[in-house]
Amino acid sequence: MVYTKEFNLPTYEEITVPELNLGTAALIAGSVYYGQECLTQNDEFMLCRFEEKDPRKCLNEGKAVTACAVNFFRKMRKNCLEEFEQYSHCIDKSSRELSLYRCRNTQAVLDKCVLEKMNIERPEYGFYCKPRVHETSRPKPPGYQHLEFPDKAVPPNIDERTEARYGSRKHYTW
């Protein structure tokens, strides 16, 4: 990739943050609770990356995500260390693919501990796949255009439906 003289890379001090030194199994074990605890920071960072189209402009949001993750796992270690370690060891040792289905008993114990001591409830299945609206105080970038669709589809009025021409299709009549 070619860069011009006007292209400025961030300094080393700007991008240095404390790292999260955890293994894959521990990150998988805490990911659901971390997602609940740091939802706003993650959404703010992803919104910034989407709107700005330049990762250098989102360094502060990225630092906030990392700081939230470090604080969350410190709280996890303080409150539910034994249950968290049992669950992450189960994930690590039960299969080569780090499957979760063999560790449901230890997951239930960790869920109970996190709910009681940290007041974080495990979200329902598919929570992170659902669309959400994120409200931000960050101004929109210059040149950002909100897309308007003048020919968008009009939802049908259910009350104005007519009966089927040849009878109902819900059941057969003999």
Structure, described:
Belongs to the complex I NDUFA8 subunit family. One of its GO terms (biological process) is mitochondrial electron transport, NADH to ubiquinone. Keywords: Disulfide bond, Electron transport, Membrane, Mitochondrion, Mitochondrion inner membrane, Repeat, Respiratory chain, Transport, Ubiquinone. The chain has 174 residues and is an all-alpha fold. Helices cover 48% and strands 0% of the residues. The chain contains 5 helices and no strands. The mean pLDDT is 87.
Query: What is the terminal-to-terminal distance?
Result: 73 Å
Please state the CA-atom Rg, rounded to the nearest Å. Answer: 24 Å
Number of helix segments? 5
CA-based shape = flat
Main location: mitochondrion
Protein name: NADH dehydrogenase [ubiquinone] 1 alpha subcomplex subunit 8
Keywords: Disulfide bond, Electron transport, Membrane, Mitochondrion, Mitochondrion inner membrane, Repeat, Respiratory chain, Transport, Ubiquinone
Organism: Armadillidium nasatum
List the helices and strands and how they pair.
Layout: H1 12-15, H2 24-37, H3 39-52, H4 59-94, H5 104-118
Quick recap of the structure?
This protein is mainly α. Helices cover 48% and strands 0% of the residues.
Task: For the structure shown, list the relevant keywords.
single chain; repeat; mitochondrion; respiratory chain; 5 helices; mainly alpha; 174 residues; transport; membrane
